[in-house]
Amino acid sequence: MLESRVNVNLTPEEIAEAKRRLGREPNEIELGMIDVMWSEHCSYKSSKKVLEILPKSGRRVVVGPGYDSGVVDIGDGDVIAFKVESHNHPSAIDPYNGSATGVGGIIRDILCMNCRPIALLDSLRFGNPQSAHARWLFNNVVKGIADYGNRTGIPTVAGEVEFDESFEVNCLVNVACVGLGRINELTLARMDNPGDIVVLMGGDTGRDGIHGVTFASKTIREDSELERPAVQVGNPFIKKLVIEATLEAMRTGKVTAVKDLGGGGLTCALSEMSSKGGTGVDVELTNIHVREEGMTPYELLLSESQERMIFTILPESQDEVLRVFRKWEVPYSIIGKVTDTGRIVAKYRGRIVVDIPSKLLTEPPMAKRRARKISIITKKRASKPPIPMDFAKVMHHILSSPNIADMHPVYRQYDHEVGLRTILKPGDADAAVLRIIGKNKAIAVKIDCNSLHCYLDPYAGHAAAVAEAARNVTATGAKPIAVTDCCNFGNPEKPEVYWQFKEAIRGITYMLKGLGLPCVGGNVSFYNEDEESGRAVKPTTTIVMLGLIERLSLVTSMALKEVGESIILLGKTYPELGGSEYYRLIGFDGGKVPKAVASRERASIKTLAEAIRRGYVTAAHDCSKGGLAVSLAEMAIKGGLGLKVDLAYVLHTPSMRIDEILFSESSARFIVTTSEVNTAKILSLARRRGVPASKIGEVSASSYTVAMNGKILFECSVESLRESWQDAIPRLIGG
Amino acid sequence: MIIENKKLARDPEGETIAKELIERRGISTIKSVRSGKYLRFLVEAGKEEEALRLVEKIANELRIFNPVVHICNIRIMGESR
Amino acid sequence: MIIENKKLARDPEGETIAKELIERRGISTIKSVRSGKYLRFLVEAGKEEEALRLVEKIANELRIFNPVVHICNIRIMGESR
Amino acid sequence: MKTAVIQFPGSNCDLDILHVLKNVLHVEAELVWHRDFKDSEFGAAILPGGFSYGDYLRAGIIAAHSPAIEHIKEMVSEGKLVIGICNGFQILVESELLPGALLMNQSTCFICKWVKVRVETDETPFTRHIKRRTVLNMPIAHAEGRYVNDPEGLKELHENDQVIFRYVNPRGEVSEDSNPNGSMDSIAGICNPERNVLGLMPHPERASEPVLSPFSDSDGLKLLSILKS
Ligand SMILES: Nc1ncnc2c1ncn2[C@@H]1O[C@H](COP(=O)(O)OP(=O)(O)O)[C@@H](O)[C@H]1O
Ligand SMILES: [Mg+2]
Question: Do the beta carbons of residue D149 and residue D100 sit within 8 Å?
C-alpha cells in the first residue's frame, strides 16, 4: 500500500533532524509530508529570516503576516483582506491552466478570513514580444486569468505587464486578491477547540495535483506519465460555488475556522491550523471524496487538487453548515476531529498511518544561505547618447514600446465591473478605485514593480517600487495604508541571487518605514531560472498597495479635464536615466538608476493628498516609467485634450539635457492639473512641505506641444500619439 | 484534429455536462463525457500522408495544443470532390 | 459528437487560425480551417446502433446543439475493452 | 409588484441587480435560488448575468434546463415581464423563449467595455418611457454575445419590431466599428413576439449609478425603472 520508495528533496541533515524530533524513523508517508512542509515553497526556509526586518505593525493592522492574508481596518467596522501570490512555474509550462489556478489559489486565501473577494490584480512579466514563445505565454496567461476571474464573478481591476528577455523562459505571474469583510466577523485559520468537527469541502481529491515529490518518485501505476498532466486544470464554476457556500456557511455562526488547501494540500492545512491553535487533529482518510479509485494515504494527504477548503465546525452543529453545502451542491466529507494532542493522526481504513507532531511540520529548520554582492552590473558609462534629432518620432516610438503602451488588449478581456464597485477602471488612473457600497468611501489598489531598476540596483529599485505604488494610489485621492509583496527571484542557493533578495527586502523596508506603512503579508517565489542556461529572472518584488479614500468626492483620475487649466509638476527631476525606457529604446547601457528618497516621497505624497483634499486637483498622475514626456502624453490621450508645456519651468539639477528632462524616471514626482485660481494654492502647499514644484504649462485643445524658453521644440497631435499608444500591443502580439 | 485534455487531467466541461445535464435527467447509460476541440483543415496536397504531415507541423508550430496538458489526434477525413 | 457552426453563423475561431496560418505564415496549401466542439460519450449499450440512437436523442432533447446555428455529427468511435 | 432575481449556480450579477432594484430604485425584489423559485408570488423576473454552470457546453444551455425555467415560462404565458441580462439573455435564448443564438464574439475573446446602444422601438413595456432612437451608455462584459439568426428569423424579428437595442457609434449610427462582438445587424437586445420577454447583452445594472459611469449618468435606470410600477 505504501509508496515503494519516496524520493525526497530533504538534505541528509534535515532527515536527521526530522528523526531526532520525531524520536523514531518517519514512515514513508510521514517523510513525504515532512518533505513538502520543509520545502522552500511551504517553509520559507531561505527567506523567513530576511523577511523579519519588514515593518508589520500599524494602527490599522488587524492581521499581519502569518495568516492566509493580511487584514487592514478601514473604519466603520469594515476591513480589507489582501494577499498576492505567484504562479510562475506552472504558468511557464501551461500558461492557460497555470495562471487560471493561480487566480483560484489566491481567492481562497481571502475566503479563509471570511471576507468576500471583491477584486483581483495581476502582475505579469514575459520575454520580448518579438519572441513567439513570449507571445504564446502572454496570450494564454491573460486568457487563463480572464476565464477564471470572470467566471468566479470577481472583477480584475488593475495590474501591470512588463516585457524583458530575462522572462523569456520563466514568465512571472503574480495575482493579488482583495476582500471585504467586517472586523467582528473575521476568522483565523486555526484549530482552537478540541472536539470541533473537521470537514473537507469542494472539488474532489484526485491525483492530478500531486506534484514535485511524487512526480520525481517512480510511483508504479498502470497509467503512464504521458496521460498525466504536469499542471492542474482548474474549475472556476466549482470555485464560484465554493465561494458562495463558504460565505454562507460562515453566516451560520457555527464555523470556527476555514482554510484553503493550496501547496502541500491537506498536510499543509491540517498542520498549520492545528499548530497555530496548539491542538492536534485526527482524520480518517478513507472518508475523503475522491475522483479516482484506489488513492493511497500518501496521495490523499499530499494532493493539491483545486477548489477545496477545510472547515472546523462546532460539535453538534454540523447540520446547519452541511445544509448550506448541500444547497450549493458542493461535495463535502466529514473527515475527523480536532484533538488536544498536538499531533496529526491520520487513519486509513481505521488503521493509523501517520502520527506526527503538527509543529514538527510547521517549524522546519531554516536554511543557511550566503549572499555575495554583484559588484558591477552595468558599466557606468560616463558618455551619453547623442541627442535625438526628431523628438516627435521618439515620442511615438516610446509610446509604442510594449512596456509603456496601452494594455487594453489585456484588461478588456477581464470583467472589471462586476460587483458594482469599480469607480476608476483599468486605464482611468494609476490605481483602481473600488467604492464600499453604502458608505461614502472607497479603496484604491495597485500592483507595481520596475524589474529593470530592481536588477540594476535591487535596493534602490525595490525602494522605488514601494514609492511608486504609494504614489499611484495617492494620485487617485487615496491615503496609502498597507502593503503586501510578492518576491520573484532565481535560485537562493546562489549567493548573488540571495544578495539580490536581501537587498530587495532592505530597500522595501527602508521605504515602508519612511512612509510609515506596514507590510501585512507576502509570498516568495525562488528558483525562477532557466535550468539549461542557469539564467535567473530579473529580481522582481511586486508591491501591492492598498489606499483608503475617505470621501468619494476625492476620487481623482488622470485624464485632462479642461482647456486652460494649469499643469503643475510636483518634485524635482534628476538626470536618472539608468534603466529608463528611453535608454532601453535607444539601446544605451548606462546612467544612474533613479534614487528613491523616503523623505522626498513623503513630502510629495502629502502635498498631493492635501491638494486633493482641498479640492484643488482636477487630474493627477504619477510621473515614472517613460518620464515626464510619457506621463503628460497619457494624461492628454485619456482626456482627449492637448497641452503645452515649457521645459524651462521644469525644476531640475543644473545643465540637464532636453532628453534627460523629458525622459528621466526620477522618483517622487506627480503631474497635476488645476484651475488657474488654485494654481498658486497648490504651489504654496508644496512650498510649505519643501517640495520643488512649478507650473510647467497649460491644457490646450488637441496638440501636444513642448517648448523650451518659449521656443517650440516639437509638436504632435494627441490623436496620433493615441494611435501609437493604443495600437502597439495588438500589433506586437497579434489580435 | 481533435484536442482533448490528457486522460488523467480534469475536464471541467465534460464533467459538468455529465453531471448537470445528463445525470440530472436520470440518464444512467451515459457513463462519462469528455470534451475537446475539433479543427478541420482543408489541405491541398498530393498525398494524404503529406497533408497529415503538414497539419501536424502546423499544430506544433502554432501551438494549437500544449503537450503538457493536451493530447492531439490528427486524422484524414477524406478528399474533397 | 462534433458540433460545428453553420455557414451563416461564421466561425471566428477557425477564421482566426486560418488567418494566422495563411496571412502571417504564408502557408497557402491550407485552404480553410473550421472549428468545432468535440464531445465523447461513453455509452453503455448492447449494440452500436443503440448507443448512437441514445446519443442522438439526447443531443436533440437536451439541445446539446442549437439547430438554428449548428450542425451536429455523431459517430461511433469504438468499444471500450 | 415584486420582482424575482433568479440565482443559478454561477450567476454573478445577481447581487448587483438586487442592489440596484432595492437600494437605487427602491422596488420590492427578492433573490431566489433557482431550485426554490415559484412564479406565483412575483410580478416580474430577472435572469441576471454571470456564468451559470460555468458557461460549459454553451452559455446558458445548462441553466435552461433548470426547473426554474418552467416557472418562467408560466410567467411569460401569463403576460408577466421577464428580463434576461447577459447570461440571462443567453438562458432565454437557450430556453427558446427568445429566438436565435448567442455565439462566441467575433474577436474570440471576452470583451468588457462601455458601449452605446440605441433604443429601436418604444412599443414594448420595457421601453415605453424611452423615446425611440435614444442612445444609452451601458457596459458589456461577455464572451458569447454575438447575436445570430437565420435569414427568415432575422426578417421576422425586424418585421415584428422585436429588435429593441442595437449597438451604435457616438453619433447614434449603426456601424461596423461600433459593433463590439459581430452581432448580426448590430443587435444588442430583442423581445419575444408577445413583447413581455426582453433579453439584452449590455448590463443596465452597471449603468444605474452615476458614480460608476464614465459619463456620470445612469442610463440603465431608464430601462429598469419599469419595474417600479
Ligand atoms: N515577502 C513576504 N513579506 C511578508 N510576509 C510574507 C512574505 N512572504 C510570505 N509572507 C507571509 O508568510 C506567510 C506564509 O506565506 P504563504 O505560504 O504564501 O501563505 P499561504 O499559506 O496562504 O499560501 C503568510 O502569512 C505571508 O503573508
Ligand atoms: Mg493560503
Answer: yes
Contact C9 D104 (CB under 8 A): no
Q: d(Cα A614, Cα D145) in Å, to the nearest integer?
A: 45
Share of chain B above pLDDT 90, in %: 69
Residue ranges with strand state E in A503-602:
519-525, 540-549, 566-570
Dihedral class, residue D79 (left if φ above 0, else alpha if ψ from -120 to 50, else beta):
left
Is the model's pLDDT at D223 over the cut of 70?
A: yes
CA distance A447 to A455: 18
Burial of A392 (0-12, 13-18, 19+ CB in 10 A): middle
Pocket test of ligand 1: the residue of A523, A543, A544 to mutate, having most ligand atoms within 8 Å of its CB, is A523
Contact B5, C16 (CB under 8 A): no
pLDDT at A3: 38
pLDDT at residue A227 is higher than 90: no
pLDDT at D183: 98
| Cα distance between residue D183 and residue B28, in whole Å | 39
Q: Among candidates A405, A479, A415, which has minimal Cα distance to A156?
A: A415
Q: Quick one: three-class SS letters along A261-279?
A: CCCCHHHHHHHHHHHHHCC
CA distance A333 to A315: 15
Mean pLDDT of A666-689: 98
Mean pLDDT of A265-277: 96
Residue-wise pLDDT for B23-72, tens only, equals: 988 889 999 999 999 999 999 988 999 999 999 988 888 889 999 999 99
- Going along chain B from its start, the domains and CATH numbers come out as 2-73 (3.30.1280.10)
3-class state of residue A639 by DSSP:
helix
For residues A435-459, b (16+ Cβ closer than 10 Å) or e, as one string?
A: bbeeeebbbbbbbbbbbbbbbbbbb
Q: Which domains does chain A have, with CATH numbers?
A: 187-349 (3.90.650.10), 388-411+556-735 (3.90.650.10)
Task: Provide φ and ψ at A208, rounded to 5°.
Answer: -60, -25
A544 in contact with ligand 1, CB cutoff 6 A: no
Chain D residues at the A interface, defined by Cβ less than 8 Å, are 9-13, 15-16, 19-20, 23, 33, 49-51, 53-56, 107, 109-113, 139, 141, 143, 203, 205-206, 209, 211-212, 214
pLDDT digits (tens, 9 = 90+) for A431-476: 999 999 999 999 999 999 999 999 999 999 999 999 999 999 999 9
- Sheet containing A308-313: give its strands across: A255-260, A308-313, A197-202, A332-339, A280-284, A343-348, A351-357
For A289-355, give the DSSP string. -BSSTT--HHHHHH---SSEEEEEE-TT-HHHHHHHHHHTT--EEEEEEEESSSEEEEEETTEEEEE
Nearest to A155 by CA among A550, A541, A433, A472: A433
pLDDT of residue A211: 56
Which candidate in D86, D94, D142, D191 is catalytic? D86
Residue nearest to atom 20 of ligand 1 (CA): A68
Q: Whose CA is nearest to atom 13 of ligand 1?
A: A66
Count Cβ atoms below 10 Å from residue C16 Cβ, excluding itself. 18
Distances (CA, A) of A428 to A621, A700, D111: 10, 20, 17
Which domains does chain D possess? Answer: 3-228 (3.40.50.880)
Cα gap A435→A324, rounded to integer Å: 29
Give the residues across from A117 on adjacent strands. A179
Over residues A602-614, the pLDDT tens digits come to: 999 999 999 999 9
Among partner residues D99, D108, D150, which is closest to C13 by beta-carbon distance? D108
Question: How large is the greatest C-alpha to C-alpha distance in chain B, in angstroms?
Answer: 50
Task: State the Cα–Cα distance between residues C59 and C37, nearest whole angstrom.
Answer: 13
List C-alpha distances in Å: D188 to A618, D85, D199, D203: 35, 11, 8, 11
